[in-house]
Amino acid sequence: MGGKETQRNMGTASGETGGIDAPNVGMLPRAFALLRSLAAMQASGARVTQLAKAVGLTQGTTHRILRALIAEGIVEQDERSKLYRLGVDFFALAAQAGNPGGMRSLCRPALLRLCASLGETIFLLAKSGFDAVCLDLCEGPFPIRSFTNDVGGRIALGVGQGSLAILAFLPEAEREEIIRFNVPRIRGYGMLDEVYLRTEIERVRGLGYAARNSGVLEGMAGVAVPILDRTGTAVAALSVGTLASRLGDDRLPMVVELLRRQAEAIGPLTNPFDVALKRRPAHGLLGMTDDERVA
Question: Where is the segment annotated Disordered (predicted)?
């Protein structure tokens, strides 16, 4: 009986039944890649062909993973259109992630104060692997575009002022590993290359904040200040996103000072056990295959 049970579990882990068992950990990055792609697409949903192309998987593999996610309530399929979209359980989990003792709750008052004082959109970003993720935002009155777009959006560390502020104040070894991994990813953003990125990092470390309009998002500008823990390591960043015309040299010092005050007040209060600030070891991704790492 034990042998049959083992064989059945091994069959599931091999992917033959379409399940995602714990032993088949190689499927997890693919599943998360599909979830991120669904989140980035229209609310009405997406077809298997679209998702397979977006994450670089075959349609068969994509379909099997989607069926497993549907079984868990994380993804759902519209009966009429046959489009796939994020399920109710996904949003329930997302809501639970913003627990009262977490980074979002700690920083929310600061976001509201900055938004009211400056009349701008304020973002809270945190590190997630090789990316920066938007944990929260407070929208200002001006229509803007940003790299993360909304809560849950992510961008490679080094792209945009918020992620640059985080990257610049990470431990040197961790920072170097991220730079090596992200340089190929950021080449599609205008003038961004390794020389530019390293120059900007040194500039940010010298100033204590990130503020430059790279021209990638036309007409937009931003400034960000890192939130540092007790060791001086960045755990998050407060960022302002606004129209370029509203962030001239005459206004920049005042904006930076307000951001810095809030960041310095938050830093000593950060919870080192907050899951939103847990660092996934960067080197853990470097040994993966393209399919396993796709995101």
Answer: 1-22
